[in-house]
Design a protein that fits this description.
Elements lengths: L7 E4 L5 H17 L3 E4 L4 H5 L5 H9 L4 E3 L2 H8 L7 H15 L5 E11 L2 E9 L4 E3 L3 E4 L7 H14 L4 H15 L11 H6 L10
Parallel strand pairs: 1-2, 2-3, 3-4
Antiparallel strand pairs: 4-5, 5-6, 5-7
Helix pairs in contact: 4-5, 6-7
């Protein structure tokens, strides 16, 4: 099954046509090998506008091959050229259902919502949607932030960890939130966190500090 294969993670920073070509090549190879694809568009409008690009068309092409999408309702709005009504979870679910309908290969959509209180105090929630279910965590206070770089990749890794373990939407959302929160306390761009550290993390244990 898909859950038995380690997915390839494709992130696109829109640095130019060579980056797009590399992402396409990676996904083509993954498709040929039967490897599931986790795609993170990491949309940055200023980067896309720096070269002659068509982000919506390129991203739609890449997402069409993905099994897992790291993205929120704003990313889906760009992909589908439409807006979504409602607030909070209702809007995110509407967007997720539209994405599942438009991209039949998608099996999972994962995202975070970040509320910046101060430079070293953020509130973060995580959400995971499948075609049949969804789970959104409560906000978690993350304080004493050391380094925000790499926290998005850490979230994706936490989600994929539970996906490979056969976890449900709740387990994946909580694992992603835990790993991204822990990464805020670590310098550098890698979340060097052991399985024991991840499994020992408790959102109810208070603020995350180094």
């Amino acid at each position: 099954s898909l859950h038995d294969a380690l997915p390839i993670f494709v992130g696109l920073d829109a640095l130019g046509p060579k980056g797009v070509a590399l992402a396409r090549a990676a996904q083509t190879a993954a498709r040929a090998a039967g490897v599931p694809i986790c795609f993170d568009g990491n949309y940055r409008g200023q980067l896309w506008s720096a070269w002659d690009s068509d982000p919506a068309t390129i991203l739609r092409e890449l997402v069409s091959d993905a099994t897992i999408l790291i993205g929120n309702h704003r990313d889906i709005s760009l992909l589908l050229g439409r807006t979504f009504s409602g607030d909070g979870g209702d809007r995110r679910r509407e967007a997720a259902e539209a994405a599942f309908a438009a991209f039949p290969n998608l099996r999972l959509i994962a995202s975070t919502a970040r509320h910046i209180v101060t430079s070293d105090h953020h509130r973060i929630a995580a959400r995971v949607d499948s075609p049949d279910s969804a789970h959104q965590t409560d906000e978690l206070d993350v304080t004493g932030i050391v380094d925000r770089i790499g926290t998005g990749d850490a979230f994706a890794a936490g989600v994929l960890h539970q996906w490979l373990e056969g976890g449900d939407c709740r387990a994946m959302a909580e694992s992603g939130l835990a790993l991204t929160a822990l990464k805020h306390s670590l310098p550098g761009d890698m979340a060097l966190v052991s399985r024991a550290m991840l499994e020992g993390f408790s959102p109810g244990g208070g603020d995350v500090r180094r």
